[in-house]
């Protein structure tokens, strides 16, 4: 088990109420240093509200929230320098040039540098990191949508944050830019030891990036675990396919291990191209959200969360 010092986010029984409506119900989770946590959920599930509370931009109604050892409601400038936020779009300073803006914003972080974390990030290194070297002298107004999103990421990490929040970071990215972004996230987590919490509606992206996935529905966390753990948590059928005697066979079973064992017992080396396909993350996500929205009782939801944690 990770030591307490490795816990970067610690949220316990977080609640948020607007007038008479509860939009968050006892949300509880943790994130460790260097972990990539992806938050999924339908629109209105409470993802943005949760992140805004963690960022210190919204006051919660109840519960305990600890972000980098501080209650974000009372975070000072030194605390905020350790937190990065990638907004959905950076709309200001259209007449600035890319390098000028990065250098200007980075200067605000210099007073908060430490021996272990030099701040800010070198402007040219950061611009190369996000793939904007060819546009370093371009005015922001001339950038394409995908290039603007790269700039958004650069602005969010210019202070070398220990914790990075990103809301739909790859909206507007083409496949190549999305792949580059995924490489960047892995570098931040693996080499810079940055903890990343992001939201996305792209389940394929979530599966590629996440160490752990949180699924919110109706203001509650209905599942918490790795993509593989979540897929195994949903009891269902697996599809087994194989070849034998130059023929292709497909069989659906709820006991894939037992079936494959029997298959090899009967046919041995005659089995080829064996594949077992379990529920995908999309299958799992849709199943869990449908259960929650259909009014599945709280006990079932909580027991699933405990199993996958």
Automatic annotation (TrEMBL):
It is a peripheral membrane protein. Residues 9-243 form the ABC transporter domain. GO terms for molecular function: ATP binding; ATP hydrolysis activity. Keywords: Antibiotic resistance, ATP-binding, Nucleotide-binding, Transport. The keyword ATP-binding applies. GO terms for cellular component: plasma membrane. SUPFAM superfamilies: P-loop containing nucleoside triphosphate hydrolases. It comes from the Bacteria. The keyword ATP-binding applies. GO terms for biological process: response to antibiotic. CDD domains: ABC_DR_subfamily_A. Gene3D superfamilies: P-loop containing nucleotide triphosphate hydrolases (3.40.50.300). Its main location: membrane. Pfam families: ABC_tran. It is found in: Cell membrane. PANTHER family: ABC TRANSPORTER ATP-BINDING PROTEIN. This is Multidrug ABC transporter ATP-binding protein.
